[in-house]
Specification:
2 copies of one chain form a homodimer. By secondary structure, chain A is an alpha/beta fold. Chain A has 2 domains: 244 residues, Type I PLP-dependent aspartate aminotransferase-like (Major domain) (Aspartate Aminotransferase, domain 2); 125 residues, Aspartate Aminotransferase, domain 1 (Alpha-Beta Complex), CATH 3.90.1150.10. Helices cover 42% and strands 14% of the residues of chain A. Chain A is built from 13 helices and 14 strands. The first copy, chain A, has a 7-stranded mixed sheet with strand order 2-10-9-8-5-3-4, with helices on both faces. A 3-stranded antiparallel sheet of chain A has the order 11-14-13, covered by helices on one side. In chain A, a hairpin with an 8-residue loop joins β13 and β14. In chain A, α5 packs parallel to α6, α10 runs antiparallel to α13 and α11 crosses α12. The longest helix of chain A has 21 residues. The radius of gyration of chain A is 21 Å and the shape is globular. Chains A, B: Its cofactor is pyridoxal 5'-phosphate. Chains A, B: Belongs to the class-V pyridoxal-phosphate-dependent aminotransferase family. Chains A, B: GO terms for molecular function: alanine-glyoxylate transaminase activity; L-serine-pyruvate transaminase activity.
């Protein structure tokens, strides 16, 4: 009756797509540690440590800084569902898949959404937002700091000032941002922010680190209606993650261990060094790609170091290159999503995966596959260019 | 600036509470296997295997059988949010914490909820439901099969017939049920069901196995309004877990490995044997507890083998016993929740944790701590009684 199912034996991959990125070996070990109860004193202490580390990584003193028991998209829903009451006006900035997702989530939460759009790969300026803020007068503005679908790096600080000058709250998607680029929740006055574990934190997907400012919590605690999601209701989660430790739902113990260890790794390295490492490896990759004529699809000056969205050269078979990378070399890169389907590759250098070995690996593999498809370039040029970047940095 | 956070070093526990239960060593190993991408052919194959095993464990052919990327409470919300449109009438049966939670979740989804109540520890009969169904004529009826707060085992089959005779859909909470007691999704005509990984599946918390019948999916696909949760929208999840494999959110890869391995363990043992093992260890525990005068708080004939809710003997210090069990012997049992606070202990024998060694361990530890608190009983009687049950079973 029962069919036999094979033992788990995942192939060894080098994850250089838009996430998940490679999990750090110490994080894998943390995952496999013995489960304790969700109200065990040791677990509560682990939660405390996790929260304190998360505050350091988010650069915030927000008491309501914690991990939502779901992936980054659950974090998005937690932020939107808690800040929005039915009928509330919200502006959402859309320049890729994840801004679009936020519109959908906000509408389901009953928000009256005004969407501002920029072409894929570009970012928003204060001038784009000002007239819309002026006419809409929203309660909340949502924006994506690191658009995983386009590799665009959205500056937040000036936009935050503008948004607050209109007495709105600012919600930021930092799924791909956290750990990869500088991010200052308090200094930039971000009211609510969410991220994922599977990008620059070198941890498997499954949790969403979030933080809510006192102003955001004031809005949450003074709601006239219940948050539509019981599971994501921050006013209840505050009782579990706060001092009271009142049981809400059973915490995902082993994933919490993993995130704890992932945050330790970031803080051991130091945030600034971690960001500098992401920047350097990106610079090397970019030099390599450009040396063989591959161009970025993202607006100049706003390219994320951890997610390199590049144009597929003309005449090159997208699916074949990605298939060959995976099947022949065990390397995963990302396909284009939505408007970028078939046009763009997304090469991740995230967390543990942002290192010189991976830069050389992807460049040498790409050179080989492009050569096989008749692409014209000087063999070895990408490796030489990347290496020069590292040599100059070491001087 | 950065404080140092200690290395993870969880104490070794024996988890005999209401869940999480002890994670099986093979499941811990599965958790630590290398992360692959969420669209990797290997991961898709693993999802297929997981779904097929889950169908076997749920005893269903439902195509929409999968794991929600959140804990059991996210599964509850997924079931309710998808089946309910604002204004829909729903009857919820409440005889403990989790029925109460379902009321809250359903009201947040916009349901017009009629609550039927039974005292804690008791279960519902067809006669309890019939008049309410007659007067309310609901679209959906929700009921908890294994009330984790009371240890009550709710029969489902006859109630399902009644519910369907009124053309309503039946939603069942099987968080603590799945793997511990017989459960027949198809034969009993259950329309939507959710469970947790951290009870009788010997897996850490973090995922919620769910299944939706064709009738439930028809209701979902013919909704006039969007499901209020984007994250839990089964019409979109069907495109990822179904044949199309359209990206929705990033799957929790390593937790999926863990559930895959946990389901393999259940099927290797065989479902019937697994249920029989839970029944036998419960019988031994019960014989032991009763031999020293400890009584169950649950209605006779409806006691869950995997969750033993017993009355704390008069004069015994609840918190001290639980504290001593944890701190001196490394054993976790559950406190009473809500109406049972300070009155009841909840002793779990779930999954991997349901074994003779754990029965003897908890009985000997309890005997010692009760004796220290001056409780009058014959030392060794519980061990002898439990052992007799095993000897008789072996004959």
């Amino acid at each position: 009756m029962t069919t036999t199912f094979p033992e788990l034996n995942p192939p060894v991959r080098v994850l250089m797509g838009p996430g998940p990125s490679d999990t750090h070996p110490r994080v894998l070990q943390a995952l496999a540690k013995g489960t304790v109860g969700h109200l065990d004193p040791y677990y509560l202490e682990t939660m405390n440590g996790l929260q304190e580390m998360l505050r350091q990584v988010y650069r915030t003193k927000n008491p309501m800084t914690m991990a939502i028991s779901g992936t980054g998209s659950a974090g998005m829903e937690a932020v939107v569902d808690n800040l929005i009451e039915p009928g509330d006006k919200m502006i959402v900035c859309v320049n890729g898949v994840f801004g679009g997702r936020m519109v959908d989530v906000a509408q389901r939460a009953g928000a009256e959404v005004t969407k501002i759009e920029r072409p894929w790969g570009e970012v928003f300026t204060v001038d784009d937002l000002k007239p819309v803020l002026e006419s809409v007068r929203p309660k909340v503005v949502g924006i994506v700091m690191a658009e995983t679908s386009t590799g665009a790096w959205q500056p937040i600080e000036e936009i935050s000032k503008l948004v607050h000058s209109y007495n709105a709250l600012l919600a930021v998607d930092a799924v791909t941002a956290l750990g990869g680029i500088p991010l200052e929740v308090d200094a930039w006055n971000i009211d609510a922010i969410y991220s994922g574990t599977q990008k620059c934190l070198s941890c498997p997907p499954g949790l969403s680190p979030v933080s809510f400012s006192p102003a955001a919590m004031e809005k949450v605690m003074s709601r006239k209606t219940k948050v539509q999601s019981w599971y994501l209701d921050v006013s209840m989660l505050a009782n579990y993650w706060g001092q009271n430790r009142v049981y809400h739902h059973t915490g995902p113990i082993n994933m919490t261990y993993a995130l704890y260890e992932a945050l330790r790794l970031v803080l051991e390295e130091g945030l600034e060094k971690c960001h500098a490492r992401h920047a350097l490896n990106h610079k090397a990759l970019r030099a390599g790609l450009e040396a063989i004529g591959i161009k970025y699809s993202t607006q100049e000056g706003h390219i994320l170091p951890q997610l390199n969205a590049v144009l597929i050269p003309e005449g090159i078979d997208d699916a074949k290159v990605r298939g060959d990378l995976l099947n022949r070399f065990g390397i995963e890169i990302g396909a284009g999503l939505g408007a970028y389907k078939g046009k763009v590759w997304r090469i991740g250098l995230m967390g543990y995966g942002s290192r010189p070995a991976n830069v050389l690996l992807i460049l040498s593999a790409l050179e080989q596959l492009l050569a096989e498809q008749g692409y014209q370039f000087q063999r070895g040029a990408s490796i030489a260019a990347a290496t020069t970047v590292y040599q100059n940095a070491a001087k």
